[in-house]
Design a protein that fits this description.
The chain is 46% helix and 16% strand. By secondary structure, it is an alpha/beta fold. Strands 2-1-3-5-4 form a five-stranded parallel beta sheet, sandwiched between helices. α4 links the parallel β4 and β5 (103-107). It binds D-ribose (RB5).
Length: 151
């Protein structure tokens, strides 16, 4: 299991704290930046980590910004990425079980370090349920391919 980790300046501290947590858990990760609190553009960092997941260099992504919103929008533009903003334990669990999310997005102004670590633990340890959910996840891929999936 290898995690692609990234954040903008608005979540630099949260990323560093998640990094320590991953180290303590013995989970391998690649840090795609940013590397300080200096202002940067979140799409670049979200893209770098999301692309690593899409290219299968990493298994899952953890990407943060001030709100979690901007990085989720950026990550979801990368083909093959299903990024979900999570603010509580239920969302982190359900987006793995039902959506096979491969990137969790969190906001430093939304979740504290303790909750973020908890959400990461749930996200990396919860399996996708498959079954009827696989059909729906496949439909998400169809949208990426430009297919008309309207009912
Ligand atoms: C940066 O100021 C902020 O816009 C960014 O961290 C993020 O929350 C965007 O959605």
């Amino acid at each position: 299991m290898k995690i692609a980790l990234a954040a903008d300046h608005g979540a630099y501290e949260l990323k560093e704290s998640i990094k320590k947590h991953l180290e303590q858990q013995g989970i391998d990760f690649e840090d795609f930046g940013c590397m300080s609190k200096e202002s940067v553009d979140y799409p670049r960092f979200a893209y770098a980590a999301a692309k690593a997941v899409a290219d299968k260099f990493c298994d899952l992504g953890v990407i943060c910004c001030t709100t979690g919103l901007g990085v989720s929008m950026a990550a979801n533009k990368v083909k093959g990425i299903r990024a979900a903003v999570c603010t509580n334990e239920m969302l982190a669990e359900m987006t793995r079980r039902h959506n096979d999310a491969n990137v969790i997005c969190m906001g430093q102004n939304v979740v504290n370090a303790e909750l973020a670590n908890k959400l990461v633990d749930i996200f990396v340890s919860t399996p996708f349920e498959g079954g009827r959910h696989q059909r729906r996840v496949d439909l998400l891929s169809d949208i990426e391919e430009g297919k008309n999936i309207a009912p």
